[in-house]
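Researcher: First entry.
Model:
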Amino acid sequence: MTTCSVLPLIFSLCLLWRYSFLAFPVWSQGGKLMQVCKAFARVAKKHLPNTFIYFIVFVVLLIVMSANASSTSGKQFQVSAVNLCIFDNDNSEASQALTAYLSSLHHIVSLPSADRDTLQDNMYYYQIDYVLTIPAGFEEKITSQTTRGLLKTSKRKDSCSGYFVDQQIDNYVHALLLYVKSGVPVSDAITYTQNSLDDVPEVTSVSFSNTTKSKNSRMYYFFQYFPYIILMMLLEGLSPVLMAFCKPLMKTRISCGALPQSRVSLQLGLGCLIYVFLWWIGFLGIAAVIYGPSQLFSQSGCLCILNSAVFLLIATAIALLLGAFPMDYNRINMIANILGLGMSFLCGIFVPQAFLGNTVLAIGRFLPAYWYVRITNMFGWYANDVFSASTYWMCIGIQLLFFVALFAVYLCVNRQKSRQKA
């Protein structure tokens, strides 16, 4: 996929958006055009440049990130000396021997402290890949042949390197325990273990390639950042249009016409549906060009598309609710940034959920984007989540409940405002 293949599509989408609003008033009733839809299109055009900037920036970033994922997809699961951090709290002959063995295989990284925040920060910035903590009493447990609580480990969840290190540690410990069980003193068992492992052919690189996962990693970026971009676009594009219809002058003009209020609401709702649907189709069109129809409309791709459609309903409901309260554009922009950025950081859109603390994740569960990201994690390479049909439909159902709740609040607000004016 090249930039030259995307530019014609972007140009076509620009033309589509330029003339698609002409289709709003096509449907007629008794020879009268849909004047409300026509007014909706005119107001939406005024705010189109603001939302289209988000669209263009998202497409450009998507191309860059997808190209980067393609260039590194062959190295995602390649293991050769990893960055290993060891905390030896036993400081015995056995623990020092294990440290020396791992030091001969991997790069040892020293950290000032072993607190959780420091370890997570260093893992997030790829300073370390694996953390081994040797508790006090390690040699005593080896002597007594106790394996419970022998070592504590922590590894990155987005790489197979940690599992390779796990295997190396297990081989060393099991060999050491085997010599101890046979009655060999610990000091001699350490020597025999080292000699036996030295006889094993050296493996400098292990590659776990997965073509399907590699392909999904490219498409993962599109669906991962979709909630933020669609929410920002609808809040800054759709909400101002709805607020324009809430202004007294606009309401007076509409009420002076021959259309009943039910017909006005129907046409306004139709305008919202067309507006949202066109943006969604535009995003899917870009994704089809970048990733190819075969990948986008594969089984996993269709499940992700359904997930995006459900979140599209949620973003629309939030935009409708915000549009029910008249305010200036600066306030809309402020609220949109608070909702968009806040939900993105708390729910795992910008920062993967694997790196978020338990408190942040607990808060994120009360937001719809959290359950959206739970689904994308099952298809992306960044998390260890395995696809589960029950989990998938549970997340879809929870998102639909969010939509029903938000839309119900919107209807209640509209009804309350109508009663106050009556």
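Researcher: Second entry.
Model:
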Amino acid sequence: MPLDREEKSKLRDMVSLANKSNVDDAIAAVEAARANLSEDDKDYARLTGWLEDLSHVAGGKVIGRTGDPGAQPDGMG
């Protein structure tokens, strides 16, 4: 069963606002929601992409507007 509109919106906001201090909570929320979906569900694929984006945030990368991982912030090597 696909995610309802409200839950999807809440997760999208968490992902969009994720930073090093809250990325673990965002990852846990997205993984929990994805666990209830079948692999052929379009929301499963969407959440998988969000998890990929969050992994970049967790690694210190800056995600640009296009979703492409950017360079690490100045001073992070």
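Model: Note on the second entry: The mean pLDDT is 85.
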